[in-house]
Design a protein that fits this description.
Layout lengths: L2 H4 L17 H20 L5 H5 L1 H11 L5 H4 L4 H30 L7 H16 L2 H9 L6 H24 L3 H9 L4 H35 L7 H10 L3 H29 L1
Helix pairs in contact: 4-13, 6-9, 6-11, 6-12, 7-9, 8-9, 9-11, 10-11, 11-13, 12-13
């Protein structure tokens, strides 16, 4: 719009209305958030003094980190690739088993596909499963079994909680038309699920499976640090030995793999949904 159109007849500029002052609720909310943050820091004696005191040690570690041991990456027989394959196997198995069980749990946890009595029981169970993080499950299983099995079991349970919740919400939102047609024909609940529900939710379900696979790859790295198998154990080994050059090589490979999986998963999910 030209300058001329902004001016009133007679050449007078329009008077710009004054900006209203911030609302008392906004000001109070900001002050409250600042006060809570200060109290939280005071409660744990928050201070950056330890970082400043250990700054020479930190710089020596960073000097090693920026010079990674490339042979650890270029050698296919190195422990890095063995641990990475174990991490990938943990993520794949946990994704497959957890998502398969989650589909059945979701069908039982939706009022569209399950009887009211079953739906009311399964729904709280799904909430309980989601209430604990994968790390808590891993710590429990590490206490009784060794190797990659604790990681597989922890991620499987974690996946059931996530995929079942998201899939149950998709089931709640399916088109009721096919269901009403099957009900009129006297179909059983299994027939309704197989012919009308699963085909409608399949694209979303596949998207959820890819999503938890991304989460599993990241989580299996962390779970290895508590002894649940995977490349996390190698990270802790190099960390305890103060072998930061090899540790940096491991971090580089993890970063590349996670970014590649993330991009591939996003592309596939866009095509599915």
């Amino acid at each position: 719009m030209s300058q001329a159109t902004l001016e009133r007849p007679g050449g007078q500029r329009p008077v710009r209305p004054e900006q209203p002052p911030p609302s008392p609720l906004l000001v109070g909310g900001v002050l409250g958030a600042v006060a809570i943050t200060v109290v939280a820091g005071w409660a744990i004696d928050f201070s950056l003094a330890p970082v400043i005191e250990q700054w020479p040690m930190l710089t020596s570690i960073l000097a090693e980190v920026v010079r990674p041991e490339w042979q650890e990456i270029t050698d296919p027989s190195s422990r890095l690739w063995t641990a990475l394959m174990e991490t990938a196997a943990i993520a794949v198995i946990a994704t497959f088993v957890g998502s398969l069980i989650a589909l059945g749990v979701a069908l039982l946890g939706s009022k569209v596909s399950a009887p009211p009595a079953v739906y009311r029981v399964i729904k709280p169970v799904m909430s309980v499963i989601r209430s604990l993080p994968d790390m808590a499950y891993a710590l429990v299983f590490v206490a009784v079994v060794t190797g990659p099995l604790p990681g597989i079991l922890a991620l499987t349970i974690f996946n059931i909680g996530i995929v079942a919740k998201l899939t149950a919400e998709s089931i709640d939102a399916v088109d009721p038309g096919p269901l009403e047609a099957l009900d009129a024909a006297g179909a059983t609940r299994w027939q309704r699920a197989r012919a009308a529900i699963v085909p409608q939710i399949l694209p979303n379900y596949a998207s959820y499976v890819l999503y938890v696979f991304e989460l599993n790859v990241r989580a299996s790295v962390v779970l290895g640090a508590v002894g649940a198998g995977g490349i996390g154990q190698l990270i802790m080994l190099y960390f305890n030995r103060a072998d930061y050059a090899r540790l940096a090589a491991v971090v580089i490979v993890i970063f590349v793999v996670v970014v590649a999986i993330d991009l591939l998963s996003q592309i596939l999910r866009r095509r599915l949904v």
